[in-house]
């Protein structure tokens, strides 16, 4: 466990909400001469370890990128492997997550998902809806651009139905995103050494801190998460304002 730095001048507390771009499953498998599917399978183990470890760092919400709107471009066999992992993860872990007080929320478009996956997603959300100890948001068939478009369309539909008046502002658009009502994103982590968002949380990333780690996702867990949290705690978050005055200088 990482030593808390809260109380140091300018040090950020938290993070309460960490978003993870779980990247590098394929490279992990390739490096071992294994099929990519094995990398994805190990990736699920890494996700379990990370969810387990998160509360010990004070993290209250994890948002993980499981499948992007662009991942449909992958070979059909790989897409089908990834859908299969959703089925087995929910089958093996949903009851435990529900018992442990985890609320599961799935971000992204339901249309386009295989019917049984859409049903599994609904069940996972319904079964854990009353939980509040920890929030696990899984972005699946999710794209940041698609989510912003859907939010804008929701606002247009409300105007047409006489339930809202224009103009569209930040609060109204946020309210239509699939992350609406959740905590603000404090930290976005990407594994595997790539340094891009790949269409993840474009709107929500506005003032999030970013950490890029060279570890491949199947090797992730408490250790790397602790290092990312440590980096976050050494950042100054200004939100466009001025740096917080060091406590000693003002006292
Ligand atoms: C991340 O690992 C998992 C998904 C995108 C579903 P990748 O499959 O992207 O692994 P690399 O980037 O090819 O190593
Ligand atoms: C982003 O990773 C999507 C997920 C982690 C689910 P990708 O591997 O799909 O991103 P690119 O193609 O390298 O940008
Ligand atoms: Mg990748």
Automatic annotation (TrEMBL):
Cofactor: Mg(2+)
CC annotations in GO: cytosol
PROSITE patterns named in the record: UPP_SYNTHASE (PS01066)
Pfam families: Prenyltransf (PF01255)
SUPFAM superfamilies in the record: Undecaprenyl diphosphate synthase
Binding site for substrate: 24-28, 36, 40, 68-70, 72, 74, 190, 196-198
Annotated GO MF terms: ditrans,polycis-undecaprenyl-diphosphate synthase [(2E,6E)-farnesyl-diphosphate specific] activity; magnesium ion binding
InterPro entries on file: UPP_synth-like, UPP_synth-like_CS, UPP_synth-like_sf
UniProt: Mg(2+) binding residues: 23, 209
EC identifiers of the protein: 2.5.1.-
Record's signal peptide: none
Catalytic residue positions: 23, 71 (proton acceptor)
GO biological process entries: polyprenol biosynthetic process
Assigned keywords, A-Z: Magnesium, Metal-binding, Transferase
Cofactor remark from the record: Binds 2 magnesium ions per subunit.
Description of how the protein assembles with itself and partners: Homodimer.
PANTHER family according to UniProt: DEHYDRODOLICHYL DIPHOSPHATE SYNTHASE 2, DEHYDRODOLICHYL DIPHOSPHATE SYNTHASE FAMILY MEMBER
Record's function text: Catalyzes the condensation of isopentenyl diphosphate (IPP) with allylic pyrophosphates generating different type of terpenoids.
Family: Belongs to the UPP synthase family.
UniProt name for this protein: Isoprenyl transferase
Species annotation: Brevundimonas goettingensis
Taxonomy of the source species: Bacteria, Pseudomonadati, Pseudomonadota, Alphaproteobacteria, Caulobacterales
